[in-house]
Amino acid sequence: MKIHLFQQCLIDMFYPHVGMAGVEVLERLGCELVVPKKQVCCGQMFTNSGYNEAAMDAIKNTIECFENAEYVVSMSGSCAFAIRDEYHHFLKDQPEWLARAEKLSGKIYEFTQFITDVLGVEDVGARFNESVTYHTSCHVTRLMGVKEPPFKLLKNVKDINLIELPRADRCCGFGGTFSVKNPEISEVMTREKALEIAGTGANVISGSDQACLMNIAGMLDRLHKEGEIDRRIKVMHIAEILNCR
Amino acid sequence: MDEAKRKQFIARLSRALGRDQEMCPAFVEGFDYSHGPQETMFKDLNQDQILTMFKEQCQRVGTKFVETTPDKLGETILAAIEDWGNGKIVFPSTPEVDEYKLKELFEQDAANNGGTRTYFQWDPAKGREECISNTANADIGITFPYCGIAETATVVQASGEESGRAISLLPTTHIAVLYTDTINPRMTQTMEHLAERYHNDPSKFPTNICLISGPSRTADIELVTVDGAHGPIQVTYVLVKR
Amino acid sequence: MALIYDNRPYKTRIKECLADDFKVAAIKKAQDVFYDKRNTVVADVPEWLDFRAEAAKLRDHVLNNLDYYVNQFAENAEKAGSKVHFAFDDKEATQIALDILREREAKMIVKSKTILTEEIGLNEVLEEAGIEVNETDLAEFILQTAVSPPSHIVVPGLHFERHKIREIFAEKLGYTGTENPTEMTHFVRGYVRERFLKADVGVNGCNFAVAASGTCTIVSNEGNGRMASSIPKTQVIFLGTERIVPDFKALDVMMEMLNRSAVGAKISNYFSMMTGPGRAGEADGPEETHIIIIDNGRSGILGGTFQEMLRCIRCGACMNICPVYRHISGHGYGSVYPGPMGAVLTPLFKGYDVAGDLPYASTLCGACTENCPVAIPLHELLMEHRHIMADIEKTRPKAEEAIFTAAAKMFGNSTLFDLGTKAGAIGMNLISNKEGNMPTWTQAIPVMNGWTKSKEMGTLKFKKFRDLYAEHEKNKKKEKK
């Protein structure tokens, strides 16, 4: 099966190994990957701040990169949500682009959703001997409605000790530019999330949205450094866990 | 109503809605409720099951109830009064009071109980001040709601000349006497009744109808539930199976 | 109280709220309690989402025909014997109320809980005219006694702990009892009861007004709404224009949504339906009922981008779930309408120059939207506000605009992105500490410090994903050969 990979700019810039883990998992499942070189960003960080006009370059560039694909798989749920469910709103006054966006909207999937719902695979043959808890990011879980897929996949990972995260659906406090516009509030939100994670006793926190994970990692590391959390909790994108053998 | 002001006010809304020539329509197609889930919920329950649902909800929210039959109503009410520690009792002038000869029962009781229970009958002829002040310092108020709702253990209390709003509100304890065959499964049926009742004769529609579900309650201090914020601190439903 | 009761800068309010440990803990606890209770009673109704869709449709039906229904309500309310008044704004509304009270030489009034009267600043106007105003809802009573603004729309006094309440009651009301909530509640019961019996006028809000019969309704647990509408001889009801339903059947749907969403209960202890004043021959109930229908900016929202906001039934479900409200409480918003609904509504009423910060007090996590019983797309409306400020009214700070515009160019073009991130990687790696994170001194750099003050931040990588993938592709081709 031929798929186009939407890598997410954040993974591209800061977490290239996460992207590679996704590539390896998908290839192992028999996917033939296309990674358009011109892709950059879905534009969400601009539209979430209200700069819809400025976001047009990013939005249109994304459409051009992916509109002719058969399937698009996004390594980030948040971007998949923006492309699938928000583009049509921003392009409502541009009929030609609107039509192109709508064509793309039906073809994009979040990484875990693609594996379970399109490939029909729930056991990717991974083995991971660690205690893991999982943060269900808002955009992918609540807004995009992808609730079951990551858990279906994790349950089938051999040797894993999956621990439920209390209030997993509560926002981690990232919110894109919220975290820099409202750092005081973001800080206390993320701190609460980090302590909730530490309280599970897990050594690994996973998720399928690298932006939330970056935010959580920043707080976990700081709280560990300051001694408020007793251990170093590893932050891993679900693709990294699924790529462990 | 200031007619000119009304026109101006409505016109502003019509304008915002982009109405043709800013005119308020003379007719609007009503809302179609037939697709709502409320129409079919609990539809297959029989009256016994409905009563069970009512009682279970009472237990869940901690509302006291006693069951009785018409022939034992008088003594059941007296027992309920005694259960809450007696005192001054207000009762209405509704048809049930005549039907079950409650006034006579209460008069007889007052003559024999040596002052543990005194009675006041709500009667507009006695005047507003007397009715309200006697009810305000009463311990127990007795009313006859006109129907019940099982899902929420609610009694539907209509007020009027014969039974004032204050009786189920000002005394410390409220005793509501409810016929079990008037209990509906949901608020849906109650609202249908009310719509019909209003439609049949708006001039006789009760000026005040209150859905009462247990005692007056608050949780405004640290979310601690306290009964008896302003109205009754305790409630008993007397369920009459006729 | 005016709609906006705290005019200090947004950041000042936020910092003060975050520093108040008791308040933060109280709101967190309340949220958790409401969250669990709400989920339990909603789980009882498998048809919940159908109800929600029905309720939203019903609200839309009313809003799309609001002129018709307001008119019908007014006619039927008058038929039932009420006197209907119309007010375009807060000043007109308070003046109408003041005229009614003066004509009756009212000296003392009792009020049940109504946010609308806080929106229009009724108490201040009446008190200035020498009329004694008594809030009777326990929380409102505490706030009035303490002179403090509400922190929540349903349970507005949560920011006071019992110890503090006892202290306030002792100092201002001569209370001598303990700090036991039951004892204090029953003290207020007695204190307020006297006033209920003596008041000249009772003031009520209205949760839903029934157009078909001219009926006003009040949802309450304490029974103070019943008191204010049963004992005083004159009743004044304040009604927001949008709070209309077509008929009695609609009340069934709306009550289903309101009670479960607001406090996680199947029903409120009392739901009063008042159709006109008491008739001649009734020994209690008001002898006259006035209904003041208030626009105060609502017609400006009707028919526009934000019309969905007028569906709101003031249940508070959005703030009971909001992770931002959780930490800053109602006081962070400085408006009588806090939380996500307040962040949408307050700028619509007061404009961006005074309330423009509020739409940014959200991570757009969508929990509010999901929890809203009338399906208001709250987080989308917050984005719409941001869009209007950034793109249409262009009221955002010029520096912010410049950063976003420049960044958007870079993130919309792979060549520029490549150049920019390469330069960034060099810079960040030059200054990074031994763990590969940004060093402490970067907390001095604006924007950057928002992050690095409380969280670690890694560096941009020299080899991006696109570079690794290109190598991977090359290797694969080699393997094939």
From TrEMBL, chain A:
Q: Which Pfam families match?
A: CCG
InterPro entries, alphabetized: Cys_rich_dom (IPR004017)
Where in the numbering of this chain does the Cysteine-rich domain appear? 5-83, 132-216
Source domain of life: Bacteria
Name of the featured protein: Cysteine-rich domain-containing protein
Q: Which organism is it from?
A: Veillonella infantium
> Which taxonomic lineage is given here?
Bacteria, Bacillati, Bacillota, Negativicutes, Veillonellales
From TrEMBL, chain B:
Q: Which domain of life is it from?
A: Bacteria
Q: Which is an annotated Pfam family here?
A: LUD_dom
LUD domain boundaries: 52-240
The identity of this protein, by name, is: Lactate utilization protein C
The organism named in the record is: Veillonella infantium
* Lineage start: Bacteria, Bacillati, Bacillota, Negativicutes, Veillonellales
TrEMBL record, chain C:
Lineage, opening ranks: Bacteria, Bacillati, Bacillota, Negativicutes, Veillonellales
Q: Does the keyword Iron-sulfur apply?
A: yes
Which UniProt keywords are listed?
Answer: 4Fe-4S, Electron transport, Iron, Iron-sulfur, Metal-binding, Repeat, Transport
Name of the protein: Iron-sulfur cluster-binding protein
Please state every residue range assigned to the domain named 4Fe-4S ferredoxin-type: 303-333
Q: Which PANTHER family match?
A: LACTATE UTILIZATION PROTEIN B
Q: Which Pfam families match?
A: Fer4_8, LUD_dom
The residue range of the signal peptide is none
| Stored InterPro entries | 4Fe4S_Fe-S-bd, 4Fe4S_Fe_S_CS, FTHF_cligase-like_sf, Helical_ferredxn, LUD_dom, LutB/LldF, NagB/RpiA_transferase-like
Tell me which Gene3D superfamilies the record gives.
Alpha-helical ferredoxin (1.10.1060.10), NagB/RpiA/CoA transferase-like (3.40.50.10420)
Q: Which domain of life is it from?
A: Bacteria
